[in-house]
Amino acid sequence: MSPEHARAKAPAEPFRIGLLGLGTVGAAFAELLEERAGEIERFNGRRPQICGVLTRTRGDFEEILAEADLLVELIGGIEPAREYLLTAMRSGMDVVSANKQLLSQHGEELFETAREHGVRLRFEAAVAGVVPVVRVLEESLSATPIERVHGIVNGTTNFILTEMDHGSSYAEALAAAQRRGFAEADPSDDVSGRDAAAKMAILARLAFGTPVHLNDVRYEGIEHLHVTDLEYARELGLGLKLIGTAERRGGGLSVRVHPAFLYSGHPLASVSGTFNAVTVESEAITEITMSGPGAGGRQTASAVLGDVVSVMTGGAQAPAAPLALPLIEDVASAFYLHFDVADRPGVLAAITGVLGDQGVSIKSVVQRGMGENARLVMVTHPVLESSLRTAIDRVAEFEFVRSAPRAIRVIEEEFI
Ligand SMILES: NC(=O)c1ccc[n+]([C@@H]2O[C@H](COP(=O)([O-])OP(=O)(O)OC[C@H]3O[C@@H](n4cnc5c(N)ncnc54)[C@H](OP(=O)(O)O)[C@@H]3O)[C@@H](O)[C@H]2O)c1
């Protein structure tokens, strides 16, 4: 055998991965890597293998850093994950993370460090689980001027709303989610909308190039929703989802999370259970929707492994230096309104009069008598949220109003 031939046949060095965190996702990642290492080596030439693991009770970060070609952070939270990622990037190492808290609160610091040191920072699993939306925004749509991103980016709340749509109360649906392991014992991050807000901050940065901190995202959760809202909405042809939105509005950017009714022709209307989905709208592409499992150890690990392969094959760089679109808070939406009122003449006229004074015009009304009382359910045309709130506060002052009026946004677009 010639020396050249012998050299060509020599096995390539393994690609060494330092793994921080061996919990739900970390353990699933280690298992998946073991299963897939041969296949990755076959098309990539190098076999990925874990060279060190850090948890609270085992491993040494400095030793892992000295050994590894790539660091995978699956600890979660802010510290020490932030410090480990910054240290690794400053030493010239590529990194992968699934950490939405960290990216939504310290994204610019991490992106800037990645750019400065010419390393890759991949984070597909931080948003929408296994749905490859980060890569699509960073690579496939990087030259497309995006108008709007809508997302169902929290599987726990989507499961709860799906159960409520089948007749469960909020409390029953939450208990079912906890029994099946879809909701934590303390579900507040999910049901308050904060988890979805973190993911929308990350998506907004990718889609619009503007830094968005978690604190910039206005969010509302699902705790206050009633099964009756879903029942009435069904009559109006609407389904209810917790929707994250990032969109251009009047020269600025609006990023928000709230429950919203969708007409059945909207691509997110049929996304049920724990699935996640993201819709990207742009004049050039009209609309594309990606959907898939939103969480779970093995599913998330699969997105992390995709990032590892992306680094091995030289995938995308960190997001470019930021642009600055002003963040807009008061945006126009259509609303679903629900009033419990005394069943007597003049009530409907009094309410529509107050709404009209604030420029709120009504698209459809459902009215039900219930003995002494009645329910009025309306869908409005788009109106600024501030005007709508003023109108609702004034309606609430009428003595014939029996309980606090409820207002839920309606997304009007349909792509059919
Ligand atoms: N679970 C999901 O379905 C899912 C989905 C999408 C994204 N994610 C993200 O994936 C990441 C990991 O989530 P997970 O559910 O796998 O979390 P987890 O089950 O709580 O595991 C966390 C791991 O990190 C280790 N750890 C915690 N603090 C540490 C510290 N100070 N130093 C060293 N190691 C430490 C823990 O060590 P011990 O083993 O010693 O406790 C554990 O091994 C998070 O960023 C999460 O947001 C998770």
Structural class, by secondary structure, is alpha/beta
Bound molecules: NADP nicotinamide-adenine-dinucleotide phosphate
Number of strands: 16
What are the segments in which pLDDT stays under 50 over at least 5 consecutive residues? none
Please state the overall shape, judged from the principal axes of the Cα atoms. elongated
Number of helices: 14
**Measured distance between first and last alpha carbons:** 65 Å
* H-E order: HEHEHEHEHEHEHHHHEHEEEEHEHEEEHE
Rg, alpha carbons: 25 Å
Task: Tell me the strand percentage band.
Answer: 25-35%
Strands, helices and their partners?
Blueprint (H helix, E strand, L loop, with lengths): L2 H7 L5 E6 L3 H21 L3 E7 L6 H7 L2 E4 L7 H10 L3 E4 L2 H18 L3 E2 L10 H8 L7 E5 L2 H11 L4 H10 L8 H4 L2 H15 L9 E2 L7 H9 L2 E12 L2 E12 L11 E8 L3 E8 L3 H16 L19 E11 L4 H11 L4 E9 L2 E8 L2 E2 H12 L9 E6 L5
Parallel strand pairs: 1-2, 1-3, 3-4, 4-5, 7-9, 9-16
Antiparallel strand pairs: 6-8, 6-10, 8-9, 10-11, 12-14, 12-15, 12-16, 13-14
Helix pairs in contact: 2-12, 4-5, 5-10, 7-8, 13-14
NADP nicotinamide-adenine-dinucleotide phosphate binds next to helix 2 and helix 12.
Detailed description of the structure:
The protein is an alpha/beta fold and 416 residues long. It has 14 helices and 16 strands. The protein has helices at residues 3-9, 24-44, 61-67, 81-90, 100-117, 133-140, 155-165, 170-179, 188-191, 194-208, 227-235, 297-312, 347-357, 385-396; strands at 15-20, 48-54, 70-73, 94-97, 121-122, 148-152, 218-219, 238-249, 252-263, 275-282, 286-293, 332-342, 362-370, 373-380, 383-384, 406-411. Strands 6, 7, 8, 9, 10, 11, 12, 13, 14, 15 and 16 form an 11-stranded mixed sheet that branches. A hairpin with a 2-residue loop joins strand 8 (238-249) and strand 9. Helix 4 (81-90) runs parallel beside helix 5 (100-117) and helix 5 (100-117) packs parallel to helix 10 (194-208). The longest helix has 21 residues, at 24-44. It is elongated and about 90 Å long. Bound molecules: NADP nicotinamide-adenine-dinucleotide phosphate (NAP). NADP nicotinamide-adenine-dinucleotide phosphate binds next to helix 2 and helix 12. NADP nicotinamide-adenine-dinucleotide phosphate is lined by residues 21-26, 54-57, 74-76, 80, 98-100, 125, 129, 295-297, 300.
